[in-house]
Write a structure and sequence with these properties.
By secondary structure, the chain is α+β, with helices and mostly antiparallel strands. It has helices at 3-12, 16-56, 66-69, 79-87, 121-127, 152-158, 193-197, 204-210, 230-244, 255-258, 260-298, 300-308, 313-349, 358-361, 375-398, 405-409; strands spanning 59-63, 92-106, 111-119, 134-137, 147-151, 165-171, 177-188, 199-203, 219-224, 250-254, 351-352, 368-369. It has 2 domains: 3-52 and 262-409, no CATH class; 65-248, no CATH class.
């Protein structure tokens, strides 16, 4: 160990109380940053995974122009080929096929415009929370025909209950009139008013028959094992879909394109969080700045004597910076360790948000959020503390260069 390091270590503990308070402030800031960043990233993953299981999935496959036009004529004509393709791609957890159409729905008393979705009941249960969202009646069975699931608010507006009949009237894929009567088998609540107010689900086979779809569908909905796999699977799908049908290729799109509002909400929350973290780091930096300004005032005579006997200002500056970096390193290391332990504890048990805000409830999150510890959340915050406190300590350390030995030794 060099003499400069030994001098810095002794100087740190000249005033143990001040040193401990400074280290504790740095450790607390680092701890808070580790936990809060892990909580944010965990909440984003929970929000995304919960939202995609309400309706969209992590990925969808459509006809090229379907998302822009939402035309009933923009179809995936050979869904079995898509099924074979999806079965060859690893890390795809589940998939299903759907049909989509806009129609009028009428009860004995009222008529509303709704989005009609044809679903495969067995596969739908593996990619969405629709089955667990049924509050009255029952979920659709594979053998059901002319049965329907209706959103809670739509059922309220239509004054219907399970067992009642409603009439659907729309346009088929071939331009014909699509009309039928279906019986309400269940009423669901997704937690999102827009969906519960204007959507109805019927068996896919019934949908294809009513809307003259043949075997065609409008979308393949895919759930993957991990969010980190989405980009790679999307690229792989688009390459394979292009090679299957170069003249009229299908397109795979991810949750960011399907739910741009969710992406924007996450970005806004992240920016506001970063502003808070920056203010926290600045407060810690001022604590370091104050500590070293006090250290310089208290040791002015000492610095004067050292310079008088030949110690260069550069060496004294180096010693002060070693002191500051030692305290900061000890504080950030303690903060990373304690913050990681706290995060791991809540990562397994979750944090109850039963009184969730309106923003979270819009995405169906009403239970628990699980923080997610990662290298980014564990290192990025404390590293920012380390860098900013270094520059904060640099200012008082550089003041030594302006000292004159005679004046410094006369300081009171």
């Amino acid at each position: 160990m060099s003499i400069d390091v030994k001098m810095a270590w002794r100087n740190i503990w000249r005033n143990p109380r001040r040193t401990m308070l400074t280290i504790c402030a740095i450790a607390f800031a680092s701890l808070l940053l580790v936990f809060m960043l892990s909580f944010q990233f965990g909440s984003y993953e929970t929000m995304i995974n919960t939202s995609v299981k309400i309706h969209t999935g992590h990925l969808q496959i459509h006809a090229h122009e379907y998302l822009k036009k939402k035309s009933i004529r923009q179809v995936v004509s050979e869904p079995q080929e898509i099924a074979h393709l999806l079965q060859t791609i690893p890390k795809i957890e589940a998939y299903t096929f759907r049909g989509q159409a806009f129609s009028l729905i009428s009860s004995k008393e009222r008529t509303y415009g709704v989005a009609v979705t044809g679903i495969d009941p067995e596969r739908e249960a593996t990619v969405s929370r629709l089955k667990s969202s049924v509050r009255e009646g029952e979920f659709l069975a594979e053998s059901d025909k002319d049965q329907a699931l209706v959103g809670k608010l739509l059922a309220k507006n239509l004054h219907i209950t399970p067992g009642d009949e409603v009439t659907l009237l729309g346009q088929g894929r071939d331009g014909s009139i699509a009309a039928t009567v279906v019986s309400v088998k269940g009423i669901y609540s997704s937690g999102i008013d827009e969906i519960d107010r204007a959507s109805i689900h019927i068996p896919l086979k019934t949908f294809q028959e009513i809307y003259a779809m043949g075997n065609a569908i409008h979308e393949a909905v895919i759930i993957v094992e991990s969010l980190s796999d989405v980009d790679a699977i999307k690229r792989s799908l688009n390459v394979k879909l292009q090679s299957q049908n170069p003249d009229n290729p299908l397109t795979a799109v991810d949750w960011e394109e399907l739910m741009p509002g969710l992406r924007q909400s996450i970005e806004m929350d992240l920016v506001s969080g970063l502003i808070f973290y920056l203010l926290l780091i600045i407060v810690v930096a001022f604590s370091i700045l104050n500590t070293f300004l006090m250290a310089i005032f208290e040791r002015t005579k000492e610095f004067g004597v050292l310079m008088a006997i030949g110690t260069t200002p550069e060496r004294l500056t180096k010693v002060l910076l070693i002191e500051s970096m030692t305290m900061t390193s000890v504080g950030t290391s303690a903060g990373i360790i304690i913050g990681s332990l706290i995060t791991i504890y809540f990562q397994s048990r979750g944090i109850d948000i039963s009184g969730a805000s309106d923003l979270l409830s819009q995405f169906g999150i009403t239970g628990r959020i699980y923080p997610k510890l990662s290298w980014i959340s564990a290192i990025s915050g404390p590293l920012a503390v380390l860098i900013i406190t270094f520059f904060a300590a640099l200012y008082p350390a550089l003041k030594i260069k302006k000292m004159r030995p005679v004046e410094a030794m006369r300081a009171v």
